[in-house]
Amino acid sequence: MTRLENDTFIRALLRQPVDYTPVWMMRQAGRYLPEYNQTRARAGDFLSLCKNPALATEVTLQPLERFPLDAAILFSDILTIPDAMGLGLYFSAGEGPRFERPLREEWEIRALSVPDPDTHLRYVMDAVTEIRKALNNRVPLIGFSGSPFTLACYMVEGAGSSDYRQIKTMLYARPDLLHRILDITAQAVVAYLNAQIEAGAQAVMIFDSWGGVLSHAAYQEFSLRYMQQILEGLKREHDGERIPNILFTKGGGLWLESIGASGCDAIGLDWSIDIGEARRRTQDKVALQGNLDPAVLFSTPEIIAAEAGKILASYGHGHGHVFNLGHGISQFTPPENAKALVEAVHALSVPYHKNN
Asked: Could you give the CA distance from residue 132 to residue 72 in angstroms, rounded to a whole number?
């Protein structure tokens, strides 16, 4: 059992008393930091950076050297699992991730298998171990994965999509094939996240980036169902410590009650829903993470503090809130504005935790 110097993030996820609202930012290690761009240039490209544990450790820690963040998040990519399945991940300049061999044929889908994380994703586990050692118990380390549906979107489309035509065609015309992809991918995510926990991750997050493009019925059947399958298989304790989990569906505000009943410890919120309303709808049964519009960080420190204050006021008194952006920080964000946000949340949140 290891003792964290700052365990505010973990306690907030478990809805335990804290002295202030902890804060971290999705994509906090990224292109808005000049030091990240320098390290990425040394690596050669994004994928090489992800697959080099020493450099992944370096960029994971960079934002913590600048800002008093309450958690670190593993530097990696959500598409490591389909890459390990042999789909041939690559990144084109200005075009984002692509797969050389997207899943279109039935025989390819039937042949899918769960990759061994300790073999095919060893570089991720090595990065987790190195990051934990480098953190030296300053703050907790978050591990993560994409959700089965989000991974399947990339696996079937072969890249990002504006209309999701390929996967939605499969969803309605051949749901059996999509269920096959989702089931194998869910098994892979369980193995992957549990391996991250064994390697040292102290909380885990599932990014359902594209679940919000589904209809109500399709979300329940093709996205949430498989995230529940993952939650059922996740390790909840390791090394004598509870390992909390977070589910984040971008555009998922319609389904908060269902997500809250999934067995997760916390729900990540995008900026389109009021966090106070989300708290009322989930009845304080889960922690909430969020949910500042990342575009606020293009403004001034005064406006940033005012907007952060609105979210803190909306959540109100009591525990169970982790402050975050409603999606990843933009590459165009001035680093000093990210610092202003972290400092504002720490200062403004203290009154909400007194006498609770």
From this structure: 10
Report residue 75 CA to chain centroid gap.
Answer: 11
Q: Is residue 155 part of a domain?
A: yes
Once rounded to an integer, what is the mean pLDDT over residues 30-48?
95
Q: Specify the range with the lowest mean pLDDT, choosing from 159-163, 171-175, 199-203, 239-243.
A: 159-163
Supply the range of the domain harboring residue 259.
8-353
Q: Please give the C-alpha separations between residue 112 and each of 10, 204, 289, in angstroms, as whole numbers.
A: 35, 25, 34
- Give me the active site residues, please: 27, 31, 40, 77, 154
Cβ contacts of 205 within 8 Å, gap of 6 or more: 73, 142, 143, 144, 145, 245, 246, 247, 248, 268
Instruction: Judge whether 288 lies within some domain.
Output: yes
Q: Does some domain include residue 12?
A: yes
Domain count, the chain: 1
CATH number at residue 253: 3.20.20.210
The string of pLDDT tens digits covering residues 98-131 is 899 999 999 999 999 999 999 999 999 999 999 9
**What is the per-residue pLDDT for 188?**
98
Residue 2 covered by a domain: no
Is the pTM higher than 0.90? The answer reads: yes
